[in-house]
Design brief:
The chain has 251 residues and is an alpha/beta fold. It has 2 domains: 131 residues, ATPase, nucleotide binding domain (Nucleotidyltransferase, domain 5), CATH 3.30.420; 106 residues, Nucleotidyltransferase, domain 5, CATH 3.30.420.40. 36% of the residues lie in helices and 27% in strands. The protein contains 9 helices and 12 strands. Strands 6, 7, 8, 9, 10, 11 and 12 form a 7-stranded mixed β-sheet that branches. A hairpin with a 6-residue loop joins strand 1 and strand 2. Helix 1 packs across helix 2. The longest helix has 18 residues. The protein starts with 7 loop residues before the first strand and ends with a helix.
Length: 251
């Protein structure tokens, strides 16, 4: 594609149970399609891609960049999503962008100096990572993603005084997070932190609202990566698993 062209981006998120797809041209969102956690992504992903393309009024051949969540998340979902994106990109001779799922969670929650992004990991556990989100949506890791129980995570972060909690895993653990904040004497509130809150409240944990469809955030991050020259050939995409698969754990 021409270097000055506004890229058409197909973003596929299959790391979570429901998954999602988004089509964007630069910053402009053309279509977005949320998934259904009760239906296997292996049986519906290609149909959903067709539906999203039709809604956007574009064809697969017009796509310039293919973006995908690379984890952590569902093992099966990640493999399906990455295989699909690699196949599209290889067939059409396009580049790809892999977006860590927890980066997308943090980006969707908005600007923050310290965002703790959480996703369910099964068996009552979570995937978690601390990140910072600049104005403009650039995400910076403050540590590495981990697989952990909610109890151990709360013990790990209880000394954090200003923190934005984001993601599906947070909403599932809201009562435990609020109880820990009460024990630590930290104000707990719904709604994102902002600069004014951080300056006037010394100790505050804030719960981000229900996240937007994650494929939308993946598209935004893919655009930033593309503009930074960080798009890669499809064979370079690698999943971030963090923990062994259930099959490996059950050996």
């Amino acid at each position: 594609m021409l270097p000055n062209k506004t890229p058409l981006i197909l973003s596929i998120e299959t790391a979570t149970r429901a998954g999602s797809i988004a089509i964007s041209r630069g910053e402009r969102l053309l279509s977005v399609l949320g998934g259904d956690s009760s239906i296997s992504q292996s049986t519906r992903l290609l149909q959903q891609v067709r539906e999203a393309l039709d809604e956007a009024g574009v064809t697969l051949e017009e796509v310039d960049i293919f973006a995908a969540s690379v984890g952590p998340g569902s093992f099966t979902g990640l493999r399906i999503g990455l295989a699909t994106v690699k196949s599209f990109a290889a067939t059409l001779g396009r580049l790809c962008v892999g977006v860590p799922t927890l980066y997308a969670v943090a980006q969707a929650a908005g600007e923050s100096k310290r965002t703790l992004a959480l996703l369910p990991a099964g068996r009552g556990e979570v995937f978690a990572q601390m990140l910072a989100v600049e104005r403009g949506g650039i995400v910076h890791p403050l540590d590495t993603p981990i697989h952990i129980t909610p109890r151990k995570l709360l013990e790990k972060v209880k000394s954090e005084t200003n923190l934005l909690w984001a993601g599906e895993g947070v909403h599932l653990q809201k009562e435990a997070i609020e109880a820990q904040a009460l024990i630590e004497g930290i104000l707990f509130r719904d709604g994102s932190l902002n600069a004014h809150n951080e300056q006037t409240v010394n100790r505050q944990w804030s719960l981000a609202g229900s996240p937007e469809v994650l494929a939308t955030a993946i598209g935004k991050l893919a655009l930033l990566n593309f503009r930074a020259g960080e798009a890669v050939p499809p064979e370079s995409l690698q999943a971030i698993y963090v923990r062994p698969s259930d099959a490996e754990l059950n050996k």
